[in-house]
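Mods, move this if it's the wrong board.
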Amino acid sequence: MTSLAGRVAVVTGGGRGIGRAIALGMAHAGADVAVVARTASELDTVAGEVRALGRRALTVPTDMLDRAQVTAAVEQTARDLGRLDILVNNAGGPVVLSGEPRSLWVEEHDDASWDATLVLNLTSCYWAAKAALGPMLRNAYGRIINVGSGYSLIGASGLSAYTAAKHGLVGFTRALAMEVGTRGVTVNLLRPGWTNTHLVDWRTIGALTGRTPEGAKAHAENLAAERRILEPEEVAPLAVFLASPAAAGITGQILSADGGYMIGV
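Not the wrong board. Structure tokens:
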């Protein structure tokens, strides 16, 4: 029931981490995949892995802070692969243009870093969704999956811009789900918890929270029922399910793959 045969997916931030795992998960389920990110070498590697699974792959080097590039990437996917059924808005993370980790606290925050963080984690998702809706609505089938964060629902000391953007993505998900709910398109937010990716730098996280790197990692593990950090490949199956026809009745929801993050707090 989770077959994606004949479908086309675009995955932003698809060069590594959760994005790579989702792109490969989509390919395993039968979808052709466009991989969107900044680093061409990473895109080429993932595209090769997709093709090794017998699926078509498209690489689209894109700066997610540039509206024209984001829109063009989505439009190119629909044009070159013949359709567009699935959009995974996965690109994200704090943007630090200047300063040390402490500069992410509000009283010292660099304004340009604030603006860029909101664009990367929220506004770029709007740009991509807007471009994707045309082909999705024409075919009366679409799956938009916004990748949130553990901080989509809680506060994070020293990550005010990132937290604000991820909270905003929840609202955007729900509002867009209402707009297209009768037209064959679902919109959901996939919420990972702590996941072993390049974004998880325990030294920086420790500096933000007054802990050693080892202490920061142990604290994160203890916040989850499973007392561990998940791997990206454990998050991807939820995205594949949400992209499938089997998930037609699920929209406007926050669904977590997080090892039980914060359920006991």
